[in-house]
């Protein structure tokens, strides 16, 4: 219930800020949900939601600065929890593990090469960067790579769908801390571009 109150508060703040914006390079704020798949099965059981997807404390917050519609720099934070009974690193988890990630990434909106970015019903992008992922407070750094799509609801409001592969670059936790993270968010352009 507290999560819903925070989401409603953030949406009201975003609406208040948007009335002061007039910029060709908009800020984009997002709030949504995420799921983490750290099953260790690589790409063999991508849709095994029951065993592999962790769906608890699902929050995601993001802030992105767009540049000339084609590029963006994003900082995002996600919260989740690995429940007991889920597949973690090829073994069934026997205890809960708290998960927090802070990612900084660059985006290239590749769909802009063949659509009008201001008026298209969707924009597709590739994304990559660095992640700091905390498994019960233990830091595991990752190289992130993925893709996503924004689906237009209205000019300054969109639905964002994203999938990230997060590839471990250190060995701070037992097993392989590489994992997949999927998210869905509502995003709002704060500094609106000229129509």
Structure description:
Strand 5 and strand 6 (91-92) form a beta hairpin. The chain has 195 residues and is mainly beta. It contains 2 helices and 11 strands.
> How many helix segments?
2
Biggest beta-sheet profile? 8 strands, antiparallel, barrel
Overall structural class, as computed from helix and strand content, comes to: mainly beta
Q: Percent helix among the residues?
A: 10-25%
Strand order of the largest sheet: 1-3-4-7-8-9-10-11
Strand composition percent: over 45%
Q: Mean pLDDT score, rounded?
A: 77
The CA-CA distance between the termini, in Å, is: 38 Å
Label the overall shape. elongated
Residue stretches low in confidence (pLDDT < 50, at least 5 long) are 16-22
Order of helices and strands: HEHEEEEEEEEEE
Return Rg in Å.
17 Å
Quick one: how many beta strands? 11
Set down the secondary structure blueprint:
Elements: H1 2-18, E1 27-37, H2 49-52, E2 53-54, E3 59-67, E4 71-82, E5 87-88, E6 91-92, E7 97-108, E8 122-135, E9 138-154, E10 157-168, E11 179-189
Antiparallel strand pairs: 1-2, 1-3, 1-11, 3-4, 4-7, 5-6, 7-8, 8-9, 9-10, 10-11
